[in-house]
Specification:
The protein has 3 helices and 3 strands, in the order ααββαβ. The radius of gyration is 15 Å and the shape is globular. By secondary structure, the chain is α+β, with helices and mostly antiparallel strands. The model has no long low-confidence stretch (mean pLDDT 90). The chain has one domain. The protein starts with 5 loop residues before the first helix and ends in a 19-residue tail after the last strand.
């Protein structure tokens, strides 16, 4: 099953350089391949955007250059036998 927000994330990736020029360090809300809001942090972005848009219909993304803004690495001491 394809992610319902895949097109919004692809929009972010395709326009990352332009978005960094405009909004570096900010958090943007993307819906229907458009930036519909710009905020200082993810909490405020969520609280404000859900007032007028249904949860699950928009992407909240921190704007930064490179892949650090959208990749997370988790480390574990678990071993598998």
């Amino acid at each position: 099953m394809e992610s319902p927000l895949k097109k919004e994330f692809e929009y972010y990736l395709a326009n990352q350089a332009v978005l960094v020029e405009k909004y570096d360090g900010k958090v943007v809300v993307i819906k229907d391949c458009k930036v519909i809001g710009v905020y200082d942090n993810q909490s405020i972005a969520l609280i404000e955007t859900q007032k007028s848009h249904q949860l699950g219909t928009f992407l909240i993304q921190k704007v930064a250059s490179g892949s650090d803004a959208y990749l997370q690495t988790f480390h574990s001491r678990v071993t598998f036998a």
